Amino acid sequence: xxxxxxxxxxxxxxxxxxxxxxxxxxxxxxxxxxxxxxxxxxxxxxxxxxxxxxxxxxxxxxxxxxxxxxxxxxxxxxxxxxxxxxxxxxxxxxxxxxxxxxxxxxxxxx
Length: 110
Prior knowledge:
- The chain is of the alpha+beta class.
- Helices cover about 30% and strands about 15% of the residues.
- It has a two-stranded antiparallel sheet.
- The longest helix has 12 residues, at about 75-85.
């Protein structure tokens, strides 16, 4: 997982309860209490379906590809990071990716 993250991603930690006003893609986001203690950027990045914790994948233009909620197993993380890191999401949907990968379940993505 560490190798996949360092190869394909630039990880950024964001405190979903931050009080700071932030600019993201030229738009201001703040924590005005609209969503309880949750910052409006966190809600925006999760397409108004925030579940904590969440991982959000952005493309090189800063556009949200997908958000993945909840804690995940190590095995799940390998598949998720491979799917987004190697741009498989551009070629096929998640279900097709898993079906394709299940043919070689014993071999984890590199």
